[in-house]
Design brief:
This protein is 41% helix and 26% strand. By secondary structure, the chain is of the alpha/beta class. The chain starts with a helix and ends with a strand.
Length: 358
């Protein structure tokens, strides 16, 4: 009886705390609505990413536990997302359909209260943001196993949109079907990149079974939801969306399989103190040019985290280089290095400076 009374008392205390949290959330929401009115009167942007980042950093610094640090960020991401929806609807375009990994990355960054709108292609995401129909867009740019997403890089050649943030998402592939039995699988559907990331597992466990490329992992799940003899390589989230069972979990060949996504917007992000800058440039074809294009960064101690070349479609055998470096374009040492680089280039285009994903 004593243990029961103690348990009941603990539960009553938890209920009281929950009631207090709810009251505080509503008080916070009221203040957020006042902030929205001030922003409207002063014609300020309603979404200020730096303010979000400051909130996360302050709370994580003050958290003494035992509530996990990552959970603090997850909880407050939803609180901030819901609060922003009270100020103004935040529309975010992403490469769809729903239940893809891009959809998961978009939810991870913007929360569930944002209005997330699926687009059929990467160019369509750019167009939604360029024409002001969405405040931000989310597109994939790189996978740790399969490399860069060329369509995204190509779009930056034509678009003036800026990279505002990056999102790193650990990609875990599951084999999904209606029955949940491996013996029933006579055909496998998925996106080509997901198939490539699971090729060894497929060869070892489903030898001779046809594998069919489709436009997305979500579309694969949708197809399999109507075919009892097929399976899809997709996310656990897709299984829930399309009422599928998990045949096998984590069938990717490489552990630590991450995909990097970019958040694109119409304005440059403010300096956070821990930033990356991405740029594109084309160099003049002459002896020693590769050395000279890297020297401005090396001589100033600017760390380069990625360099990628892409063919210039308008001219054969000429290339565009994509570069990621540490620092913000407003940092004097970065600005000087980029200016120095420009002496050897036909053009230089700053794609954005943004907080480094952690």
């Amino acid at each position: 009886m004593s243990a029961t009374r103690n348990l009941d008392a603990l539960r009553r205390e938890i209920d009281a705390i929950d009631d207090a949290i709810l009251d505080l959330l509503n008080r916070r929401a009221g203040l957020v609505m006042e902030v929205g009115q001030v922003k409207t009167a002063e014609k300020r942007d309603f979404h200020v990413p730096n303010r979000e980042r400051e909130i996360y950093e302050r709370l994580l610094a003050h958290n003494t536990g035992p509530f996990p640090a990552e959970a603090v960020k997850s909880v407050f991401r939803e609180i901030i997302s819901a609060s922003l929806a009270l100020e103004a609807p935040m529309k975010v375009a992403f490469l769809g359909p729903r239940a893809t990994f891009t959809h998961l990355a978009t939810m991870q960054h913007f929360g569930l209260a944002a209005e997330l709108v699926a687009q059929k292609s990467i160019p369509a995401v750019f167009e939604e943001v360029e024409k002001g129909r969405a405040l931000y867009g989310v597109v994939p740019v790189e996978n740790s196993t399969e490399g860069m997403v060329s369509h995204t890089l190509d779009m930056f050649m034509e678009s003036d949109l800026k990279i505002n943030a990056e999102v790193l998402l650990e990609v875990s592939h599951d084999l999904l079907s209606r029955t949940g039995r491996l013996d029933d699988v006579k055909k496998v559907y998925s996106h080509p990149q997901a198939i490539a990331q699971c090729r060894k597992w497929l060869d070892d466990n489903l030898p001779g079974v046809p594998v069919v490329d489709v436009a997305s992992t979500a579309l694969a799940a949708q197809i399999v939801s109507e075919d009892y003899a097929a399976a899809a390589i997709a996310s656990e989230f897709a299984a829930a969306q399309y009422d599928l069972k998990v045949v096998r979990t984590r069938i990717e060949d490489q552990v630590n399989n991450f995909t990097r996504f970019l958040v694109i917007g119409r304005k440059m992000a403010d300096r956070s103190g821990d930033d990356k800058t991405s740029l594109m440039f084309s160099v003049k074809d002459e002896p020693g040019i590769l050395y000279r294009m890297l020297e401005p960064f090396a001589s100033r101690g600017v760390n380069l985290s990625k360099i990628e070349s892409r063919p210039l479609k308008k001219k054969a055998w000429e290339y565009i280089f994509y570069l990621d470096l540490a620092g913000h374009i407003t940092d004097p040492v970065v600005a000087e290095a980029v200016q120095d680089l420009g002496r050897y280039c036909q053009f230089v285009k700053i794609l954005g400076s943004y907080p480094r994903a952690k």
